[in-house]
Amino acid sequence: MSSPRRGSMGVYPRARAASIRVRIKSWPQHNEPILLGFPVYKVGMVSSILLDSYEKSHMFGKEVVRACTVLEAPPIFVLALKFYKKTFEGLKPITTVFSKEIPNKLSRYIEGPIKGGNLDEIPSFSDKIIDVRAIVATQPYLTGIGKKKPDIFEVKIGGDVNSALEYAKNVLGKEVRIKEIFKELSLVDVIGVTKGKGFQGVVKRFGVKILPKWHKHRKGARKVGSIGPIEPSMMRYVPRPGQMGFHRRTEYNKLIISLGEDPKQINPSGGFMHYGLVKNDYVLLFGSVMGPPKRVLFLRYPIRPQPRIWKYQLVKLLA
Prior knowledge:
Low-confidence stretches: none
Distance between the termini: 52 Å
Helix content: under 10%
Structural class: mainly beta
């Protein structure tokens, strides 16, 4: 007889993320020329009274209390456009076109020279363009989290190349709000870094059973009884202590309950715990997401949307 293994091996190795600001590795196919993602800041969680409007639900037409997450979404600034061509080694950048006017609060934090191509040069290599992306920057100084340095992301623009080029030219050097990207009762993927818990033992990290307090207890109780044979000397399936938390994770198909423009409708008296007052547009997301308050997250169009959407209508927020 052997006991069942403890903990999931599906996301091994459990290493620390390279940065709090995640890099989006894959993008969905979207026919509309629009930015396929938007960075936000996590505020906290609230209890909401929602009206279940899914006809096949056993709670259809009734009010239910569900946990929701509040995300603050200050407008992003489109710093530059980046064009890619297809090679046998994958996508390779052709050039980067920066905006002629960049706010001083953003330009001071950009590493390297702010120079590149020109919009007038695009027709000369337009036949090689296979992918159009925008380099956007958040504006955390518009919030109350006390952060000045912006988080810079590379966001793909949907649609075919020609429509993506026209859209990119229109948004270059301008601010984009989240209501221009997403709609209420639509699905999004949330990408971010989880809350860090440091170096932990096998009991907390994998849920290993604590050994009985017998005479061999002096060898340790919060440990694995055996870490394996002599050969192989290191078995990856045996729970071992190490880093817990601060991992890059993706949560798929999260439902947007509401997109709000008036923070007074959602701010509690005294502000949110560990965050403060929301000062910009906000997103009310169904359920929970990764990370502590003030953590930057990235909302992306769903890469594998589910056919059935549980629809809820916001009735009231509970204090």
